[in-house]
Amino acid sequence: MSSYAVILAAGRGSRLGQPQPKQYLSVGGMPILRRTVEVFTRHPEIDHVQLVIHPDDAADYRQAVAGLSLRAAVFGGDSRQESVFNGLMNLNAEAADLVMIHDAARPFVSPATISAALAALRDQPALDGVVAAIPLTDTLKRVEDGLISETVPRADLWRAQTPQLFRFGAIVAAHRAAVGAQFTDDAAVAEAAGLKIGIVPDSAANFKITTMDELERARQICVPGSAASIASTMAVTFAPRTGLGFDVHRFGPGDAVTLCGVSVPCAYGLIGHSDADVALHAVTDALLGALGAGDIGDHFPPSDPQWRGAASDIFLRHAVALATQQEAVLQHVDLTLICEIPKIAPHRQAMRDNLARLLALPHHAVSVKATTTEGLGFTGRKEGIAAQAIVTVQRPIA
User: Fold this and answer.
1) What is the CB neighbour count within 10 angstroms for residue 57?
2) Which fold has domain 3-235?
3) 105/362: higher pLDDT
4) 3-235 and 238-397: same fold?
5) What is the pLDDT of residues 341-366, one digit of tens each?
6) DSSP character for 95?
7) CB neighbour class for 93 (10 Å; exposed up to 12, middle 13-18, buried from 19)
8) Fold for domain 238-397?
9) Domain residue extents for the chain
10) Spatial CA neighbour of 348 closest among 252, 279, 286
11) In this predicted model, what pLDDT tens digit does every residue of 27-69 receive, in sequence order?
């Protein structure tokens, strides 16, 4: 598949309060725009890069990207949405397969995020696009007239970032249909058109420079040896870390068991303080192990009554949020269920689908298998189910 990147650099950056548009300000001796563009021009899976700039910035633009091999820039419109549309229209004759849209003011986008987005669309034909995003971990409050009126549940809420990757024909059609509307990002344009958009977990290091505090943070990241530099994924090396999770639950009364969040008919139920989802427990422990963050019992003590009967996806989402906080990138999970009953094969795809959704991973990065112990041991005697999981992440190290 051919993959193009459209980088939006037509904004004025008025919130920063600088005389020059922020994308041309220097960070570590290099314009922000150039830092951003070079991530894409160096990426082996990006074929061409299309810049969208403001007409008043032509001279600054030429200076910022001097020496880079780029398509001729096009001018943006009066809104972000119009600017994206102009960039897409300039590519319309190219017959591109995929197009990635990114904000110029996010210079610390990881090549791994770009690769993960491309892999997700190539491996999941049912998706029309994917968005780099971070799961929300803070408590959200709705405020009216200066007073808190409501606590907003944060479950299933993600903070959208860029890049946002789409199948070219689908996003062009969506933008044509959205002319005159005012959407805040391209995922919203796609949603309005009924497109199916997935999520790729991103890092908090991929922040957008909007305020002076963020500009200062970006400059500190580019100072070798500074605290911000050491903490930034741009100044550290990523290393693989593997976690192993193992869990067992015994059978009890019931007519179904929950595995990977999927209800599976069975002659028994599973006994546990929560919903006894032995599969998700093993995956959660594996992820916590890869993060060096203890085990489920440390975070969700079985002595705490609030977790009685709780859905185990709560535990897994918590572990995913911890990974995001550590700026760790989840890469692969391999789950093995060990049991005589129930038969896993008829439900394995549903389990895999749900596990991929919970982890925001492409299907090729999620494996669900099942085996027996040939009639030996407690699983062979049909006394319960065991599960083993191995999770691989990339973690930043100093």
Assistant:
1) 22
2) Spore Coat Polysaccharide Biosynthesis Protein SpsA; Chain A (3.90.550)
3) 105
4) no
5) 999 999 999 999 999 888 877 788 89
6) -
7) exposed
8) 60s Ribosomal Protein L30; Chain: A; (3.30.1330)
9) 3-235, 238-397
10) 279
11) 888 899 999 999 999 888 899 999 999 999 999 999 999 988 8
Contact 105, 198 (CB under 8 A): no
Asked if pLDDT for residue 182 goes beyond 50, the answer is yes
Question: Which residues are 262's β-sheet partners?
Answer: 259
Q: Where would I find the H helices in the chain?
A: 32-41, 58-64, 80-91, 111-123, 168-177, 186-192, 212-221, 227-231, 278-291, 296-299, 313-325, 348-359, 377-380
Token readout for 217 is: 């943070």
- CA angle, 170 then 157 then 273, to 5°: 130
| Cβ neighbours of 122 (radius 10 Å) | 16
Which residue is associated with the tokens 């032995």? 278
Residues linked to residue 148 through DSSP beta bridges, in sequence order: 143
